[in-house]
Amino acid sequence: MNNLNKEKAKKKIKALREKIRKAEYRYFVLDDPQISDAEFDKLMQDLLKLESQFPELVTADSPTQRVGGEVLDEFEKVEHSTEMLSLDNSFNAEELRGFDQRVKKNTTERDYQYIVEHKIDGLSAVIRYQGGSFQLGATRGNGEVGENITENMKTIRSLPLKIEDKAELELRGEIYLSKSEFERINEKRLENEKKPFANPRNAAAGSVRQLDSKIAASRRLSILIYDLISHSNREFETHLEVFAYLEEQGFNVNWHKKADDIGKVIEICQEWEEKRESLDFEIDGLVVKINNLNLREELGSTARSPRWAIAYKFPAQQKTTRVKSIEISLGRTGALTPTAVLEPVEIAGSTVSRATLHNEDEIKRKDIRIGDIVLVQKAGDVIPEVVKVIKEKRDGCEKEFEMPDHCPVCGTKVKRPEGEAVTRCTNISCPAQRKEKILHFVSRDAMNIEGVGPALVDQLLENDLIDDYGDLYFLKKHHLQNLERMGEKSSQNVIDAIKQSKDREFFRVIYALGIRHVGLGAARTLSDNYSSISQLMEASNEELEEIDEIGPVIADSIIDFFAEKQNRDLISRLRQAGINLSRENTEEKEKFLEGLKFVFTGSLNDFTRSEVKDLVEKAGGRSVSSVSSKTDYLVIGDNPGSKYQKAQELGIKILSESEFKELLENKEEK
Ligand code: AMP
Ligand code: ZN
């Protein structure tokens, strides 16, 4: 075998790969294998052997790359080309009709059809192909920026690593675990004395976010494709055409059916409500989309969701179980929220062991007692709720619940203001509130500080390293390194992440402050109306109320927030730390790299990856993870990877580390 020449090996490798690809397609996409598992294994063994003899012939799209192997330190960030929006929900026929009415209101077009699809209960993914090869897979993340999960997605056998079309494509699909695979994984976990996953979705999420792609490979994930976001040289008129094209390219496409009017849509939705159990994967509803792509464009989207699609969610599922106890947890506004601790029960494929009880009145109204048998309901990803008590099952041992009169965390006397349903701890330095406020501040939609989670915040508070979120910006690496479970690297990562958050958009900062009733939407409105935090702090109640979408409750709450000296001090500290506290700042920064795409490969001497990324992004450029014809610069450090060769092939401008520095310096002088 050793003297097998390279040319021959090349041919043989090519033939084996084609056979394997075909077999994978027959097995994982068509579910109609034509060769036995043993034959398949043999082909794979032969290919692996040849590739190990001629490592230079291994390509990224070879079927052998599906077994995983690479272990990452962290996932790279990927900016989405188009924001990944949510879907509006509907729960019954009437709401579907309402959706159709809104479509009619927004267009004069009357000749349109709908496509109804399964709404798979998994994780959405963005998938890019280039030159016929799978290039990149990314999670949804916050809709604008996701994580690069390419290595893990390569292990998904129904996702072709190679396709016929050489164009640049961007697709969307849903990654999921079949019910049977989910059971297999959980059985294995039980054998190994590991905690089983609560449902297929959680298991899929855990697998997709594995830094070790070997683990992901062992989980046998699946994918169904449901959209084409862009194609570099072809236009499509309808969603059906898109599906036909995707099918032709060998993708496992989502189930879909055309409906000529909303009546037919409703029929299909009701039909699947009964048939959903027959599928080997979980769906939590259906998605209804306009078929005509021009009309989609005409209808457009709101900030949250497209106007041309709606999700139809199946009704909630209900089960009975026993209330073991009622626990109190504290939110960031000091609200004491009672939660029922339940005897674990399976509802709609997941184990439910807690249900929210909202507040004291709710418990009284439903007369929920400790020990009661209750009907619990779960709808989609909403927190489970107690529907009612099964009173016939009472035996007299049930205990009535009483709201504590002191905060269970700090012991301060709690208050329930007249006319309000919520009982609160009024101690603004209550540790529970402090913790929740900090967690809100660092959360994804707010300052998005990765690595600062509940455990670290506990440690920071306990060690008196911080009192509030403003203190985060004054932490030093040595503070963190002295904490348990914090190494040098993770400490540096946390410090970097905190530093990076200083440039968040102004509306995110407003939201992060944690002003009661000011959600992300209200924060956006405020940032549209006030260009800086000082302006907002000076706003009067009347002025605030004049803004559409800001009602008296929100206005009062904003006034109260800034009236508090502690909060004003906090703002000064944020200013001192250099947090972006105005809209202008975000807009007027010098953007001398505006629109330019950078890719980095190899190790740089003077920067970490997150530092260069930061620099590029601050100057308006983008740092992306893979080379394409749209890349403007490839910056190479020591030991550059395959991106280098690729960039050369594509004729992309290549910069050394020192040339990159020059680029930054020259432009900055201007
Ligand atoms: P939601 O998270 O409820 O707003 O719904 C939007 C999510 O539904 C998307 O991010 C996808 O993950 C998921 N989804 C599942 N199936 C589909 C489908 N056929 N079309 C579009 N989105 C889908
Ligand atoms: Zn308290």
From TrEMBL:
BRCT domain ranges (all copies): 588-670
Annotated catalytic residues: 119
Signal peptide coordinates: none
GO molecular function: DNA binding; DNA ligase (NAD+) activity; metal ion binding
Any one Gene Ontology cellular component term annotated for this protein: cytosol
The protein's enzyme class: ligase
Keywords: DNA damage, DNA repair, DNA replication, Ligase, Magnesium, Manganese, Metal-binding, NAD, Zinc
Record's protein name: DNA ligase
UniProt source species: Halanaerobium hydrogeniformans (Halanaerobium sp. (strain sapolanicus))
